[in-house]
Amino acid sequence: MTETATGIRRRRMRRMMTCGLAVASMLLGLGDRADAAGQAVRFAHWVPTTHALHQGVEDWAKAVTADSKGTLEVQVFPAEQLGKARDHYDMVASGIADLALVVPGYTPGRFPIVSVLELPFLVPSAAQAAAPFDSWYRPLAPREMPEVTYCLGIVQEPGILHSRKPVTVPEDVEGMKLRPGSALVGRLFASMGASAVSISAPEAREAAARGVIDAATLAYGTLVSFGLDKVLNNHMDLPLYSVPVLYLANTRWYQGLSGDARAAVDAHCSVADAVRQSTAWGDWERAGRATLAGLPNQVFTTPDAAQRALWAETGKPFRTQWIADATAKGIDGAAALADLEAAIAAAPPPAGR
Q1: In a domain, 333, yes or no
Q2: How many angstroms separate the CA atoms of 130 and 244, rounded?
Q3: How many CB atoms sit inside 10 A of residue 29's CB?
Q4: CATH number at residue 222
């Protein structure tokens, strides 16, 4: 018998609660130590402490703690300490974490509206798309994610294809086993003949080393951070897609905050914070390319204009599908996409680009 969506959610929630019991004593101990300084707040994420997103979370946590007038003590749990990357939405919805860093693409098909950033060639850079995206999605988030409270949305610097062998045109990926950056990206490469292997970034290094995958889509800095450059050393220098990464809050926790505490959280759940985080992350990702360029055995290929046109053509059906999926969720998909595209085009590019 096929498992229903409700059954899947219940099974996922049971797994989350089991995880919560496993870490309860640790969290309670930390809470006791934080009582003197303020309410202990659990911020969960899944990236290693060497990643720019971790530094962004740390800076955000310190700013909220400092601005809360002693009412909050935000504690960061990195590197999947409280649960797997794909489970972070349910962790924050259930209260295992008060705040969490969430990649909607890790739960394919669940959040089609926010997946707009995954459309090929939509995002020129993280810094340019950050304010338009956060402003665009903020009023839509309660409709798509009613179980949680939206804080802010970060834009990933466009992802690149990394592989064991050089790639310049779509037909080169036929037969590859590829770890996509999202479900939509997986479908994009499946349309070219690749097999998508759905695993999170923290799992990709081992999968590549074992031969489970022979290609992956990631931005440069993330590739280096997870050590994938040691296996996937061919890089196609063509920005393909982006990914939204969200700060989400447990609604019961958020609604129970005191005035000073809520003011501190609200002050940093802002478009300005989304831009600051996206820009810093984008700078870090681009620096990863320079790091790779200085290492031996790293090969970079740049498709020419005709080859880029072939890649652009592969993305058109997914734009049409996104419009249909968004419309099914009760919004005017065509108008919403046009509004976002216009806002991104009107936004200034990052300095020096």
Answers
A1: yes
A2: 10
A3: 11
A4: 3.40.190.170
Domain that holds residue 327: 159-242+285-344
Instruction: Name residue 22's amino acid.
Output: A
> What tens digit of pLDDT does each residue of 218-276 get?
999 999 999 999 999 999 999 999 999 999 999 999 999 999 999 999 999 999 999 99
54-97 pLDDT, tens digit per residue, is: 999 999 999 999 999 999 999 999 999 999 999 999 999 999 99
Tokens at residue 149, please?
């409270």
Residue 216 in contact with residue 204, Cβ under 8 Å?
Answer: yes
Determine, yes or no, domain membership for 114: no
CB 155 within 8 A of CB 244: yes
